[in-house]
Amino acid sequence: MPTSQTSPSVAGGQTDPSSSAPGEEKPTPPRFILYLDGPAYAQTLRRLTLWTHHVLLPVYGREVSSQSPWCSVWWEHPEAVAQLHGLWLAWGDLTGPGSDMTGPAVWHRDHLSSVMGTLRDPQGPFAGCKPGVHRPKAAPTVETMDPFGPPPPPPPPSPWS
Question: How far is CA 93 from the centre of its chain?
């Protein structure tokens, strides 16, 4: 299964740092997707989607059940995007050009199982999603005031008092 078209180092326009000629500036590593927005986010999400659909799921996507859910629109779940992007970055680092021969084993041991276990957990981000049915998740409520910041200014006096 060719991965050169879907690894983060190649798909992100990055090259192997060890292949830089002396005096050339080394390429910057890819940024974590949660720090991106606009076209950079869209382009990275597209590359992540290609890797997820053409590498990850065909090889590691086990059967969907209520005890092991998967959402067919996983990109609508920010936690899934973040987890899969981290997994993809590790894949590129540990299996790409110049990686150690034990890189794939390290990726399986240290990254794949924990990410897939978190995503596919019945209480995870896909809880309530079923094949063909997406269920958006509500974020936990948070107090609007910053408890460690300066106190908010007092409200202006009412013109009716």
Answer: 15
